[in-house]
Write a structure and sequence with these properties.
Largest sheet: 7 strands, mixed
Mean pLDDT: 93
CATH superfamily of one domain: Probable tRNA modification gtpase trme, domain 1
CATH topology of one domain: Gyrase A, domain 2
Order of helices and strands: EEEHEEEHEEEEHEHHEEEEHEE
CATH class of one domain: Alpha Beta
Number of helices: 6
Strand content: 25-35%
Helix content: 10-25%
Shape: globular
Number of strands: 17
Structural class: alpha+beta
Distance between the termini: 24 Å
Length: 307
């Protein structure tokens, strides 16, 4: 049975932690045309980026499939920082440079000089205003804390000096996973995933009024024709942690796939009918999985037509 999971992890009274994010990196997009340049490429409205506000967005294929996720933050002056996956950042930077044409922008991969951390817990206010760093509240959910871009090798010292205790990436995942929030290609299949199957609408990753961007047509059609048949759900695990990519079965029929996980929590892409099934076990290998609905997720009425 698909259980309601309304509040996510309880943070009250939790000490303030930080987790380095070694799998994340930074690209700079600088110049007078930076807003308009990214506006025509990504799923969110770059005009919303301000010193006190970052956005989450995706770059899609022309067919509307996922390529890269990113946070776009104001780095001061005429520069945006684009925080994205480290392994795939050089390819993304190269792709962005191809699109510059006559735009007054300069794209640079800063992975060798900057690093990313996340501050989370009961009070993250002291993660803002760190000299030499760029900090912003996670625009997806406030419970995910504050993301910090700092000079390479300095994030730990800067955050420790502000009273944060270092925690592992797995500790941050233990916060993220019950909330049902994806983490780039750990959870979204490159050139296959649809944004609306992975929470980009409810988690503030798509702007429906901004105008055209690459892949917009399929994204809009998916929303307005109610074409969603599966979603990325947080799941509890009863058994060993399955490897990412492990198929999920119901009565011998494949109905989904496990994505990232840690401990007894994971994310899984599941057919809606399977996730809602009452009394029928969902199995990933020898592990039973129990889907939940995070409080931010909106699912169609099971009795409504989705055609």
């Amino acid at each position: 049975m698909l259980a309601k999971h309304r509040s996510g992890p309880q943070l009250y009274g939790m000490p303030s932690f930080f987790s380095l994010q070694p799998h994340r990196s930074v690209i700079s997009v600088a110049g007078a045309d930076r807003v308009e340049f990214l506006q025509g490429l990504i799923s969110n409205d770059t005009r919303k980026v301000a010193p006190d506000h970052a956005i989450w967005a995706a770059l899609l294929t022309p067919q509307g499939r996922f390529l890269n996720d990113m946070f776009v933050a104001d780095a001061g002056g005429d520069t945006f920082f684009v925080e994205t996956e480290r392994e795939r950042a050089p390819t993304l930077a190269k792709k962005l440079k191809m699109y510059t044409l006559r735009s007054k922008v300069d794209v640079e991969d800063l992975g060798a000089t900057l690093e990313v951390a996340v501050a989370f817990g009961d009070d993250t206010s002291s993660a803002f205003g760190i000299e030499g760093a760029v900090s912003f509240a996670d625009p997806r959910l406030s419970r995910l804390g504050v993301r910090v871009i700092a000079p390479a090798g300095q994030a730990a010292a800067l955050l420790s000096a502000r009273g944060f205790t270092e925690a592992s990436l797995a500790a941050y995942d233990a916060l993220r996973l019950p909330l049902g929030v994806p983490d780039g290609s750990r959870d979204l299949q490159v050139e296959k995933a649809l944004l609306l199957e992975n929470g980009f609408d409810e988690l503030n990753g798509v702007d429906w009024k901004k105008g055209c961007y690459m892949g917009q047509e399929l994204t809009a059609r998916t929303k307005y024709r109610a074409l969603i048949r599966k979603r990325l759900f947080p799941v509890k695990l009863e058994g060993p942690l399955p490897e990412p990519g492990t198929p999920v079965h119901r009565d011998g029929e494949e109905v989904g796939e496990v994505r990232s996980g840690t401990g007894d929590r994971a994310l899984a892409m599941l057919r809606l009918d399977a996730a809602r099934a009452d009394g029928t076990a969902l199995m990933a290998g020898a592990t039973r999985i129990v889907p939940e609905i995070p409080d931010w997720m909106h699912l169609p009425d099971p009795g409504a037509s989705s055609g």
